[in-house]
Design a protein that fits this description.
single chain; globular; 25% helix; 5-stranded antiparallel β-sheet; alpha+beta; 7-stranded antiparallel β-sheet
């Protein structure tokens, strides 16, 4: 059972935030007893911030309102008051381990404050942050090249910052082309690429490959990217339309991902349509106070852990010590316990200086159905055991 969850009297404790819709789901004919439910109160565990790997930034972004749709929609619009006082504060921690493999081929990057990183000449009007996970294969050259250059390709694109989405898509392709021209590097190596750009009030996730970004929203896991596996329906259709084949789950019988930067031994001339694509898929949303943290990880994590389980573990850890680096280390440790067969890289990005709240609901005489947040919590606990 997850820490902070106590189902014994006098309180039922749920790791999650306030959700009025969930309270309305109670199933009892005596509706007068519903008035006895009191307002939920928030409790905050002690904070511990001593072991940060990355500096804690004071970067603040203006917030938007609640999201009305799920995260697989490419763009989510604010649905309520745009004058929300919520101001995200980014705190990131990371952990990378070689795991059972002979070589470490992952790379990652954490930048809590883009203006500090790029200098005052940066051509964007508001604060931002940038994070990335790059899972290399066939050597380290592609992952290292993309880690060192992808942000530069984004901010130097002619469409940045007026059209961030187009700039990011162009940057991934330009990074792929530039790597092909790097004569001193092994251009047959490749890498997946997952980036998170906080710009103004907007979070934009870009993904090419099978790394994954998962948002923790009051205990609920929301997947912010799709895994580009060759045998997924949409990728298989795209691959076969371009003359490729999927054999035993591998693209052309060789590669276990459908999108990657590099791998130029599997690609045609620059600009030609190719079954192995470097173009990313983008998802965008506006953060609200319901959004607590983002987990970014390579497939070494997701091969052995569901998105909901990872959010449940991360939330429990953050409630205990409020340290995103220790949280990322715990996710890596848990994946190793589950016998992952790959390198492991995990980034946890928190959006508040405070730990996730614990909600206590006073007991009532009303027979009560469990809330949606409670169901997600129980699901994560069961999957983690």
């Amino acid at each position: 059972m997850a820490a902070g969850m106590d189902l014994s009297p006098p309180f039922m404790v749920i790791e999650g935030g306030r959700n009025k819709d969930n309270l309305s789901a109670m199933e009892n004919e005596n509706s007068d007893d519903l008035n006895s439910i009191r307002q939920m109160t928030l409790g905050k565990p002690p904070r511990h911030l001593s072991a940060m790997r990355h500096c804690v930034s004071s970067t603040r972004l203006a917030a938007a309102a609640d999201l009305a749709t799920d995260v697989n929609v490419n763009v989510n619009k604010p649905s309520t008051d745009e004058k929300s006082e919520f101001l995200p504060v980014f705190r990131a921690g990371s952990c990378a381990e070689m795991g059972p493999k002979q070589y470490m081929e992952d790379e990652h990057i954490c930048i809590d404050n883009l203006i500090d990183h790029l200098g005052t000449t940066a051509k964007f009007p508001s604060l931002g942050a940038f994070y990335g996970v790059f899972d290399g294969h066939g050597g380290t050259d592609a992952a290292s090249f993309v880690r060192n250059n992808i942000l530069r390709f984004i901010v130097e694109d002619s469409q940045f910052p007026s059209c961030v989405e187009k700039a990011i898509k162009s940057a991934f392709v330009q990074a792929d082309y530039a790597f092909a021209d790097a004569s001193s590097l092994d251009i047959s190596s490749g890498t997946t690429a997952l980036t998170a750009l906080f710009f103004g009030r907007t979070l934009t996730i870009a993904n090419a490959g099978d790394c994954r970004a998962v948002l923790g929203r009051r205990g609920r896991a929301l997947e912010m990217s799709n895994d580009h596996k060759p045998n997924s329906t949409s990728e298989k259709i795209r691959i076969e339309k371009l003359g490729g084949v999927v054999y035993d789950g591998y693209l052309n019988g060789q590669l276990s991902v459908a999108r990657a930067i590099g791998d130029w031994h599997m690609k045609g001339p620059k600009g030609s349509a190719c079954p192995l694509s470097a173009e990313p898929e983008l998802h965008e949303l506006l953060l609200t106070e319901e959004d607590e943290f983002l987990i970014m990880g390579c497939d070494g994590l997701w091969d052995v852990m569901s998105s909901q389980c990872a959010v449940t573990v991360a939330r429990k850890e953050l409630m205990l010590h409020n340290d995103p680096e220790r949280c990322s280390r715990e996710l890596v440790r848990e994946a190793l316990k589950r016998n992952t067969c790959d390198n492991l890289t995990v980034i946890v990005i928190c959006f508040s200086p405070d730990p996730p709240p614990r909600i206590e609901i006073p007991p009532t005489r009303v027979r009560r159905s469990i809330s949606a947040e409670g169901l997600h919590l129980l699901k994560g606990v069961l999957e983690c055991n």
